[in-house]
Amino acid sequence: MSQSMTGYSRVTRQSPLGAVTVELRGTNHRYLEIDQRVQDGLSGFGGEISQLIKRHLLRGHVDVIVSVQPPKSGARRLFFDEQFARSYYEALVELKDRFGLKGDVTLDHLLSNPRVLNTKDENIKREELWPVVQQGLEAALRALIAFRRAEGGRLIKDIKQQMNIIARNVAAIRKHLPRGIAAQKQRLGERFKALTSGASIAPSHVHEALLLLKEVDVNEELVRLESHLTHMEQTLKVQQQSVGKKLDFISQELQREANTLGAKANDGTIVRYCIEIKGAIEKIREQAQNLE
Fold this sequence. Notes:
The protein is of the alpha+beta class. The protein has helices spanning 46-54, 82-98, 107-111, 126-196, 203-214, 219-238, 243-264, 268-288; strands at residues 7-15, 18-27, 32-38, 60-69, 76-80, 117-121. It folds into three domains: 7-73 and 124-150, Ribosomal Protein S5, domain 2, CATH 3.30.230; 76-111, no CATH class; 152-288, Four Helix Bundle (Hemerythrin (Met), subunit A) (Up-down Bundle), CATH 1.20.120. The strands form two sheets. It has a four-stranded mixed beta sheet with strand order 1-2-4-3, with helices on one face. The protein has a two-stranded antiparallel sheet with strand order 5-6. The longest helix has 71 residues, at 126-196. The radius of gyration is 32 Å and the shape is elongated.
C-alpha cells in the first residue's frame, strides 16, 4: 500500500528495566536517511536501530529519538566521565583565552554539561536492554507506517482527481479539435498562399510553409497524453515499491506532451484546456514527491 513519507509516532513501553520511549518523525527525502538522537548509554544500539528501520521503510528522512527511564526502585550510582570532563575543561579555557574573557573556569561550568556527571543504572546490562528498545521501536514503526499509509491514501485520492481533470480536458480538446483544425487550416492556407504566390519561391518560404502544415495536427500529443494517463492508472493499481518515483517520472512525461500541445495548438480554446491540464499535472508531481 502506498505511503506518504511524512508521519509521526511516539510510543512508550513499560518493562521491569524501565520505560522506553521511542519518537519517530518522517519527512520527504529522495532516499532513506536516518538521524538518531538517543540517550547516553544507548548509542551502541545505532546499528540495530538503523537496520530495523531499513526493513520497514524505503524512502524519507526519519528522525529517531530513543530514551529509557529506569525504574525508581532500581539501584543507581553516580557516573563521572573524567576524560570528557578534562577535554571540556580545556576547551572552555581555550575559549576564555581566545576571546579575552575574565574569570576562572569553575566546577559549575563543568557541571552545566550533563555528560560530565550523570547517573547510571547498575542493574541494567546492554544485552538485557536491547529487547526492550527493540519492542518500543517496532511499536513506533507500526504506528508511523499506519500514519504514512493514511496520508498516502489521501495523496493517491487527490492524484486520481487530478488525473480525471486531465482526462476531461483531453476529451474536450478532441471534441473541439475538428473545428479548431478547420479554422487553423484556413489561416495557414492563407499564409501558405502568401508565401508561395511570388514568381520565384525562396527556399526559406518553402521551409516555413512545411512547418506550418506540420503544426496543424496535435493528435499525436493527445494520444501520448492518454497513454501516459493509462500508465499512471496501472501504476496506481499495482502500487509497487517506490511508486512515488514512478508517478513523478510519468508526470514529467505528461508535462512534456502538454507543453508541446500548447505550443502547437494555435487555438485559444485548446490553450485554455492545456492550462488546466498543466495545473493538474503540477499538482500530481507535488503529491507524487510526497509518496514513498
